[in-house]
Task: structure prediction
Amino acid sequence: MSALALAVSPDHFIGGERVASKEHFEDISPIDGTVIAEISRGGAAEADAAVRAAHAAFPAWAALGPQGRAPYLHKLADLIDANVERLAEVECLDMAMLLRSLRARVISRGARNYRAYADLAVAYEERDWRSNGTWNRVQRMPAGPAAVITPWNAPFMLSTWKTAPALAAGCTMVLKPAEWSPLSCSLLADLIAEAGFPPGVFNIIQGIGEEVGAALVSHPLLRRVSFTGSPETGRHIAVAAGANLVPFTAELGGKGPLIVFEDADLDAAARKAAGQYDDSGQVCLAGTRLLVQDSVRDAFLQRFHAYVDEHVLGDPREDATTLSPLIHPDHLARVSGFVERAREAGDTIVRGGTRAGGLHYEPTLIEPRSNDAEVVQREIFGPVLTLQGFATEEEAVALANSTEYGLSGIVYTSSLGRADRVGRQLRAGTVWVNTFLVRDLTAPFGGVGISGIGREGGNYALDFYSELKALQILEGTVQ
Result:
């Protein structure tokens, strides 16, 4: 697999056509540091053209209704399934996720997203009832052009997670992928065209977030904005969307606890804890704060270290590799900075804590001096976990809820009562018990606190991309 074999357009996709910019920026592979593409560097003009294309295409796309839009989405899903290998190779080279994971589960999730939302939109039942002498119905109306901004980790799957419900609901789209990994989203535009979507229904603009992204989210013709990224960027986007009174949803990262109680299956808990290093910790849902009951600390750690020792840092295209490089030199410096400041502050580096060549970083475990430590309270987004002990269930819950984040949590226990009690008390959008990353596409997904605003998934996402209308008819006046 080489950069020359990719055959991916580096340009925008606006109104059904590829559009180049005069300026470009380099897309560098995290695997070996080679420049794999010169990406069009869009700005306000490209953002305006894309939104206007979506605006022009909206009336006809909305008028198709869910039944009319579903065949396009199913055709797109079929094309994704037929191009798994190509998409996987591109994304591996672009952001260094394990190639076998992309082939086996990540890319195909995109196809499932489009099929699921096509079917959910068709199956939606409008609510009917009688009240005060009137017959009432709640109707969904497509909201209008929507902007979606996706992160650099798992860019293809996360772009489909957002665009599938938007398209199914009847919105037209402008997608802005992250500048560090834009190529698989560009391939998605090719598949959109091959599936026969009308021009302007789906548009992509490439570029730097502060330039083209800022112009996009402040555009007055948009009616929805959805973003996944950092709280800092999310605040800026919320202000821009709010100025035009545009509804905004955001998933803004996490600092999830992984709580291990003394009645847990310690081997399963330790295996899952070691698995939080997957994708080099570049997973917002990861349980990065290990909270282990004092009575089983030593037994847990013995198992945990054994499982971490099985990890292999290497080329993500090789089957033996379990830990990929980090996405970018700037991100490696950020992760390394957290660890160095923790070391200087007197936190204990239990294992790891060093760079390992290229953009690799050793799986790292830190025991902080206090719960106020930076490594406990801030999202690192790398292969760095923290370890804290607790004596009681109440203490575990207090520690779990002690950060500003609230995206996810993981609990290991053999007690159904404890699972229910602790699950209810954790401030998180998703809580897993004795498992991790099991997702039902109809379930709500999102965070509390600074982890996000709103919910994605199932009808929650379709409602976001819709306007809800109450229709009331005086009984006895129509036939």
Q: What stands out?
A: The longest strand covers residues 134-142. Residues 352 and 364 are 4 Å apart (CA to CA). The radius of gyration is 23 Å. The chain has 15 helices and 20 strands.
